[in-house]
Design goal:
By secondary structure, the protein is α/β, with parallel strands linked by helices. The protein folds into two domains: 181 residues, 3-Layer(aba) Sandwich (Rossmann fold), CATH 3.40.50.300; 34 residues, no CATH class. The chain contains eight helices and nine strands. It starts with a strand and ends with a strand. It holds the Pfam family cobW. One of its GO terms (molecular function) is nickel cation binding. InterPro entries: CobW/HypB/UreG_nucleotide-bd, Hyd_mat_HypB, P-loop_NTPase.
Length: 232
């Protein structure tokens, strides 16, 4: 079984890129299955279902979608195996730019929107910096110079990544991504994350709604950058 984790900022075109890539994989006689992870609601399972591939939806709700993805990686792989798939494509909402939901034995794909500006790659963090493949979308909306600057910023933070310019409407880049998936590593037991999750939860994470600082414990960071642990 091959595992492909596709993450990226909201609206970057992850689903559109995946739809074209699945078509390319099927034409090349692969058997993909898809798990779509979102926060509260999605109907993307209908779009994937039209391609005739096994599809399952996971809603993280009160849990960070990237953490939800990590926690459920093992059962997702087991489900894909039961469906007779040889590739599991896991699309995660990827809302936290500090998280990186990539295990060490997967193909890590970060989808990023070029129209968000040339400084965006500097702001994304391990979601981008630990990816094997960076898929730049919506490049047809900006100039060639802007695309080149964006590409250089991506390589500045992740010099070892493979950069693909993709188009979610035309399918540009999907064959290249499908080839990378075919040549990716097999999953193995005892996988580990490529990058540590955020340091710890705080009382805000666990439901505290009061704003005053005296009510909060955990790993906390001040405006001046000072970090402290407050609690038992």
């Amino acid at each position: 079984m091959k595992l492909v984790v596709v993450a990226g900022t909201p609206g970057s075109g992850k689903t559109s890129v995946l739809l074209h890539t699945i078509k390319a994989l099927i034409r090349r006689e692969n058997k993909p299955a898809v798990v779509k992870v979102d926060c509260l609601w999605t109907d993307d399972d209908k779009r994937f279902g039209r391609l005739g591939v096994p599809i399952r939806v996971g809603l993280a709700k009160d849990m960070c979608p990237d953490h939800f993805t990590i926690y459920n990686t093992e059962p997702m792989l087991k489900w894909a195996e039961e469906e007779g798939a040889d590739v599991l494509l896991n699309e995660t909402a990827g809302l936290c730019l500090r998280c990186a939901p990539y295990p060490d034995s997967c193909l890590a794909v970060c989808v990023i929107d070029v129209t968000t500006g040339p400084n965006t790659p500097l702001k994304v963090g391990p979601l981008l910096t630990t990816a094997d493949v960076v898929v730049m979308t919506k490049g047809d909306i900006v100039s060639q110079a802007e695309r080149e600057v964006f590409r250089e910023r991506v390589l500045e933070v992740n010099p070892d990544s493979m950069v693909i310019e993709a188009n979610g409407l035309t399918g540009k880049g999907s064959i290249e991504l499908a080839e990378l998936i075919e040549n990716s590593v097999e999953t193995r037991e005892g996988m580990e994350l490529r990058y540590s999750p955020p340091l710890a939860i705080c009382t805000l994470c666990s439901g505290e709604k009061r704003v005053e600082r005296k009510y909060h414990m955990g790993v906390l960071r001040h405006l001046d950058g000072f970090m402290e642990y407050k609690g038992e």
